[in-house]
Amino acid sequence: MSTNPRVSSAIADQPASFATVMSHTPNLIGKFFDLYAHFWQRGIVADVLKEMTRLRNARITDCGY
Amino acid sequence: MSWIATVDAGTPLEAVLNHRPDLAARYRAFYRSIFTDGLVPRRTLELCRLRIAAIHDCAAEAVVRDTAVSLGEAELAALQAGACDGFSSAERAALALAELIPFAHHSISDAQMAAVRDDLGDAGCVALVTALAFFDVSCRMRLTLDIDAEPAHLSNPPLRHGALV
User: Fold this and answer.
1) Which of B86, B121, B145, B165 has the smallest C-beta neighbourhood within 10 Å, fewest atoms?
2) Are the Cβ atoms of A27 and B33 closer than 8 angstroms?
3) pLDDT of B96-140, one tens digit each?
4) Contact: A24, B123; criterion CB under 8 Å
5) What is the ipTM of this complex?
6) Closest approach of A62 to chain B, Cα-based (Å)
7) What is the per-residue burial (b if ≥16 Cβ within 10 Å, else e) of A9-47?
8) What are the Cα distances from residue B30, in Å, to A31, B34, B156?
9) Do A24 and B106 make contact, defined as CB atoms within 8 angstroms?
10) How far apart are CA B102 and CA A14, in angstroms?
């Protein structure tokens, strides 16, 4: 796995990050953020449970992000 | 039948997801845009989706087909076996990522990503990786929730009469 971004930022003068790389597909990422925000802000699963499982998943997939 | 109680809905997947209708609506809109944005050829998406379904041995995903993509028996057998030499170079580049996304994502090389970028550009590359990730998600959801396998030929994937298949 590369340690350097493999796709450049879609936003001038901003470094490559999840948001700026995904901005190459504004329609897709807009709908994703709508989904993800709803999951985090309106869900019925306790926040602490979601955060624990998110971090555990990040460890299992070895995702430093 | 899923071990989660189902609600009245048009497809086995929606019968489970619609326990949370607002979340399901947003997931439907997002997943639909993978197919409608036009950044990745429908055939490439279909090849990759079916390959990931084969890797997961996910029958519920494998029996869904995009009618805009006509795949022959030999192509379907190749996808099932992971023997993708007969596809175009661009399709093989996409399938190389699909092969690794489910269980070996750390093994994706710079060269493999570059091959996809060369073919699809930055926007297409981002769209393809997102599609692959959520084809993987789709299999994992179907398998974990034990969603019934219901054969479907979709002209408007991933929807049938507005419902996620």
Assistant:
1) B86
2) yes
3) 999 999 999 999 999 999 999 999 999 999 999 999 999 999 999
4) yes
5) 0.91
6) 8
7) bbeeeeeeeeebbbbbbeebbebbeebeebeeeeeeeee
8) 5, 7, 14
9) no
10) 31
Which pair of structure tokens corresponds to residue B133? 């990730």
| Closest chain A residue to the Cα of B29, Cα to Cα | A31
**What b/e readout covers B132-154, taking b as 16+ CB neighbours within 10 angstroms?**
bebbbebbebbeebebbeeebee
Partner-chain contact B117 A7, CB within 8 Å: yes
CA–CA dist B85, B91 (Å, integer): 10
Give me the total of CB pairs closer than 8 Å, taking one residue from chain A and one from chain B: 68
For the beta carbon of residue B44, count every other beta carbon within 10 angstroms: 24
A19 close contact with B: CB closer than 8 A: no
| A63: exposed, middle or buried (Cβ count in 10 Å: 0-12, 13-18, 19+) | exposed
B130/A28 CB distance under 8 A: yes
Give the tens place of pLDDT for each residue, A30-51. Answer: 999 999 999 999 888 999 999 9
